[in-house]
Specification:
The protein has 13 helices and seven strands. By secondary structure, the chain is an alpha+beta fold. The N and C termini lie far apart (91 Å).
């Protein structure tokens, strides 16, 4: 090796790469038969997938460790060392995507190295922006969604303390037990609500307001765990108009349970919203029509909250189950695996045990949930027809 090449190799070994501060790394996630990590650039909104070995290297690029030190840790973990060409390949991948800190994000050149092909990565996600149209579109409601969420968290974040949250959850549970025990009565009241346009409009308005609080609750809980909110706005698919709140780094929050709590926050908010109306329905002296309308609101609001926990995309329940399974694109991966099993394809055996368990559990659980929903619809229709 010439002196120039040796010097370039030594410079590369002493290079101390650092990811830019707003680059996020996810935990290990199942993706089909593979285990992957997601990497996201929050400035551009783009993200891609890497394998466990690439993640092992990238996660150690903190500006303190040199490539020599990272390589030694890698060799101790995986039993092999990386040569200069492989390091250039990895650094080129990160530099091309603008993920490395520094003036241009590039490593020291290695003159003798041949250009290396970039490792395969998942498709980049385009940055989301407001879109407007007559029939469908979205529009931002606030200029700085993260600052707005921070103010909401300062105002209402105390409710997330156990001393407040536990009693509220007990009240919610008691309310839902009462709703289930008196579902027949509430169902009749719901039927009557649809014959009264004025009360129906009022109930629909309250339910819409509940969906707005649902979205904001996601943002407030994410903020509680150090998350950031990219957008708060309105989205319409006429005749439906709903509010949305986009948590920019949901998949990159500190722990799986923090992500589950964030996804669960919306449905919990829907149920908390119903508590004062439940108190009115139980204890206030109301005329028959208003009493029935409040009962219908309880039933419809409870159904709305529980529907969000159904484990199908794009609902919150799907996000929760995906986190419990530690998977990304869970529905698609489970569908592919179960089709392989049904065809007795030998490729199904290539899936690791954890993936097989997760995908089978999701498939069976989905069938069970569908059966429960169908049974509830049939029971409700039978009750209405026989009353």
């Amino acid at each position: 090796m010439s002196a120039a090449a040796q010097g370039a190799a030594e410079a590369l070994a002493e290079y101390r790469p650092a990811l830019r501060p707003r680059v996020l790394l996810s935990d290990a996630l199942l993706h089909g038969a593979a285990t992957v990590h997601l990497i996201k650039d929050t400035d551009s909104g783009s993200s891609f997938r890497v394998g466990p070995k690439e993640h092992f290297l990238i996660a150690r690029m903190d500006g303190e460790r040199s490539l020599r030190q990272i390589g030694e840790e890698y060799a101790e973990e995986y039993g092999r060392r990386l040569d200069g060409a492989r390091w250039q390949q990895i650094l080129r991948m990160l530099g091309t995507r603008g993920l490395l800190a520094g003036a241009d994000g590039r490593a020291p050149a290695e003159p003798a190295a041949e250009p290396a092909a970039e490792p395969a990565a998942g498709p980049a996600e385009p940055a989301a922006g407001p879109e407007r149209g007559v029939l469908r579109g979205s529009i931002r409601l606030v200029a700085d969604a993260d600052a707005t969420t921070a103010r909401l968290h300062r105002a209402a974040g105390f409710l997330l303390a156990p001393g407040w949250l536990v009693p509220l959850l007990v009240l919610v549970l008691a309310m839902e037990v009462m709703v289930s025990l008196r579902a027949g009565e509430l169902l009749v009241g719901t039927r009557e609500l649809f014959t009264n346009p004025v009360l129906l409009t009022g109930a629909a308005t309250l339910l819409w307001f509940s969906t707005a609080l649902h979205e904001l609750a996601h943002g407030v809980v994410a903020r509680h765990y150090g998350g950031t909110v990219a957008e708060i706005g309105l989205r319409w698919r006429l005749p439906v108009v709903i509010m949305y709140c986009t948590v920019d780094n949901y998949l990159y929050l500190g722990s799986r349970w923090q992500r589950i709590h964030t996804a669960l926050a919306g449905a919990v908010m829907n149920l908390l919203f119903l508590l004062p109306f439940c108190a009115l329905w139980l204890f206030a002296p109301l005329d028959a029509a208003t009493h029935e309308a409040l009962g219908a609101l309880l039933l419809l609001g409870s159904a709305q909250a529980l529907a969000m926990l159904v484990p199908f995309p794009p609902l919150d329940g799907y996000r929760i189950v995906s986190q419990l399974c530690g998977a990304t694109e869970l529905a698609a991966s489970a569908g592919t695996y179960l089709r392989l099993v049904a065809r007795r394809d030998p490729a199904a055996a290539d899936y690791p045990r954890r993936a097989r368990t997760a995908y089978l559990a999701y498939g069976l659980g989905s069938v069970f949930v569908l059966a429960l929903i169908l049974a509830a619809v049939v029971a409700g229709a039978h009750h209405l027809l026989t009353v």
